[in-house]
Amino acid sequence: MLDRKVVELLNQQVNKEFYSAYLYLDFSNYCYDEGLDGFGNWYRVQAQEERDHAMLILQYLQNNGEKVVLEAIDKPAVEITSAKAVLSEGLKHEQYVTGLIHTIYDAAYSVKDFRTMQFLDWFVKEQCEEENNADNLVKKFELFGDDPKSLYMLDNELGARVYSAPSLVL
Ligand code: FEO
Prior knowledge:
By secondary structure, the protein is an all-alpha fold. The chain has a single domain (4-159), classed as Up-down Bundle (Ferritin). The protein is 75% helix and 0% strand. Helix 2 (37-63) packs parallel to helix 5 and helix 3 (83-110) packs antiparallel against helix 4. It is elongated and about 55 Å long. The structure holds MU-OXO-diiron. Residues 17, 20, 50, 53, 94, 97, 130 line the site of MU-OXO-diiron.
């Protein structure tokens, strides 16, 4: 049986990951509306990955005999005013999520819940990758976003992203 606090935090994280999916879908919609279809594709794939994160945590709870409580998913709280804002808000959001994962890890560590720590190791690594990806997007946009031809090429590059299932199998 898992520690109650750890279960509560994991359950909340299910909701936070679904919220992330919702947020990135909102970003995707904005980009498609602006004619940046490649950016739209990139965030749509990202939304799929976030849904996977939620499902992995949900599955972990169930594998440990825990009941999962699904709460309402908030409306995306970020007001998008430009493509650049999408990218910087994306980076901020990933940094926030990293903090959430670390908080759960800390709770598991404090009760010697090695099983949950091992499960979360994948998420710790994943957050490093997610922050790097988001940071790269911000940097690329800063370099190329003001030049239409370069922006077109960047948009094409992001349009090539394809969804793949997570490497973590439970
Ligand atoms: Fe599920 Fe982007 O962190």
